[in-house]
UniProtKB/TrEMBL annotation:
Chain positions recorded as pyridoxal 5'-phosphate binding sites: 143-144, 171-174, 227, 256, 259, 281, 311, 339
Any one GO molecular function term: kynureninase activity
Protein name in the entry: Kynureninase
EC number(s) per entry: 3.7.1.3
Biological process (GO), any one: quinolinate biosynthetic process
Quaternary structure and interacting proteins, as annotated: Homodimer.
Catalytic activity: 3-hydroxy-L-kynurenine + H2O = 3-hydroxyanthranilate + L-alanine + H(+); L-kynurenine + H2O = anthranilate + L-alanine + H(+)
Location in the cell: Cytoplasm
Taxonomic lineage: Eukaryota, Metazoa, Spiralia, Gnathifera, Rotifera
Length: 462
């Protein structure tokens, strides 16, 4: 199907143009159920949906059971919060359980997935997803812990350069980390924190405003740490341009990639990003609270940064010699602290197998079309004069400036009431602040999911 496998000259078409072209070719109205089904039939990646478990309507706690007539799957648009479970997870967990049962402590170095090397099967695919080179990726801890460990090494304030630049309305845990690091070094957030904000009456932050802020304050900024994809608005930042501009001002540049990895293609090595941290339970589908990771550019491999050490930062070959001084591993390995969890790495590896088979570029192509289709349905089916309410989409309209997310602000009705009603009808998404966040994930969401979601929105009796 041209719309989902666009290459060559088709790559120049916008997602909306592709949808329009397919509608005209098939002679099926774009907003019809038949069009959604036709898109799914021609989606070369549609089979991957069967690789994931969808919650059933009868399983979800908020569903009004008196209003459903089947035990079908819910409409799951919550992958930005927690990705669905891969059908491969149980087998991966069974391998660990069997090795533990059969081998005991010998499972550390023997068995199908030796415990002491359980993170290494995850690394090759993560390198591809992050655009990293050898030794630049490490699997360890969780997101905020990793941000702290990275800032221990990369946030080195001086009397002249001590500020941290981050976006307004960053994820709260990130802001807690930034502010506590600032206080740890003897400053106050009032003097050392700089937040970049959207312009008045706008929701997203313009790249040119970030660059202007760097020109004005770059000489006093020690660290810039932004989200690759902003959790609240869904905006995808121009990582390459911002990184280059900040480094020209002498700033160290880090990125929180919680909502970016597995969502959009990344080229961290080529973009010369200094470091990054990420979790794995959103678009990487590893499970709630599962293990995270770090990226450290090879430009920093020969630097003697201050850091907190633990025995897993020691080289594999000498770790069990129990020396008094650390024999530090190369690159990101040298930043690790404790041995990784075997069961967390097993669930992550199970999901990463699918990414490795499909490829992030193919997923990105589908994602642009799927997200655009959802936007198109909202604009044509909800934002009409006769509608009970309207929807303002905060997320950038340009597909290149967003991932698999639309942040919806409800106009003319109570957003919380609409969210609650959607939950009662079997739609799984989330509500943050005053917006409803919807994530059409290309791995497992279908075009019919988008159609069904908007149909439910249209049917609400408020």
């Amino acid at each position: 199907m041209k719309s989902l496998n666009c290459n060559g000259k088709d790559e120049e078409l916008t997602p909306q143009n592709i949808l329009n072209e397919q509608s005209e070719k098939w002679k099926i109205p774009l907003v019809s159920e038949a069009f959604a089904r036709k898109l799914d039939e021609n989606d070369a990646l549609h089979y991957i949906r069967d690789e994931f478990h969808f919650p059933k309507l009868t399983s979800l706690p908020k569903v009004d059971k008196s209003r459903i007539n089947s035990d079908s799957s819910c409409i799951y648009f919550c992958g930005h919060s927690l990705g669905l479970q891969s059908t491969r997870v149980r087998q991966a967990i069974d391998v660990w359980l069997n090795d533990w049962a059969d081998l005991g402590a010998h499972g550390h170095i023997h068995g199908r997935n030796p415990f002491a090397a359980c993170d290494y099967p995850c690394i090759p695919t993560l390198q591809k997803l992050l655009g990293a080179e050898d030794k630049e990726v490490g699997v360890m801890n969780q997101l905020t812990s990793n941000l702290h460990f990275m800032m221990i090494s990369f946030y080195r304030p001086t009397a002249e350069r001590f500020k941290i630049l981050y976006e307004e309305r960053s994820f709260p845990s990130d802001e807690y980390a930034f502010q506590s690091q600032i206080r740890f070094h003897g400053y106050t957030p009032e003097e050392a924190a700089i937040t970049v904000k959207p312009r008045q009456n706008e929701d997203c932050i313009r790249t040119e405003d970030i660059l202007e802020l760097l020109k004005q304050h770059g000489q006093s900024i020690a660290l810039i740490l932004l989200s690759g994809v902003q959790y609240y608005t869904g905006q995808l930042f121009d990582i390459e341009t911002i990184t280059e501009a900040a480094q020209q001002q002498g700033c160290t540049v880090g990125w929180d990639l919680a909502h970016a990895v597995g969502n959009v293609p990344l080229k961290l090595h080529d973009w010369k990003v200094d470091f990054a941290a990420f979790c794995s339970y959103k678009y990487l589908n590893s499970g709630a609270g599962c293990i995270g990771g770090i990226f450290v550019h090879s430009n920093h491999f020969d630097k003697d940064y201050p850091r907190f050490d633990g025995w897993w930062g020691n080289r594999d070959a000498t770790r069990f010699q129990m020396a008094k001084e650390i024999d530090r591993g190369v690159g990101a390995d040298g930043f690790r602290i404790s041995n990784p969890s075997i069961h967390q790495c097993a669930t992550l590896a199970a999901s990463l197998q699918i990414f490795d088979e499909v490829g992030i570029e193919q997923l990105r192509k589908k994602s642009k079309i799927l997200t655009q289709y959802l936007q198109c349905l909202i604009e044509n089916e909800i934002n009409q004069a006769a509608s009970k309410f309207k929807i303002d989409i905060l997320t950038p309209k340009d597909p290149k400036q967003r991932g698999a997310q639309l942040s919806l602000r409800i106009i003319g009705a109570d957003a919380r009431q609409i969210f609650n009603e959607l939950e009662r009808l079997g739609v799984c998404l989330d509500y943050r602040g005053d917006i409803i966040r919807v994530a059409p994930v290309p791995l497992y969401n279908s075009f019919m999911d988008a159609y069904r979601f908007v149909s439910v929105l249209k049917s609400l009796k408020l």
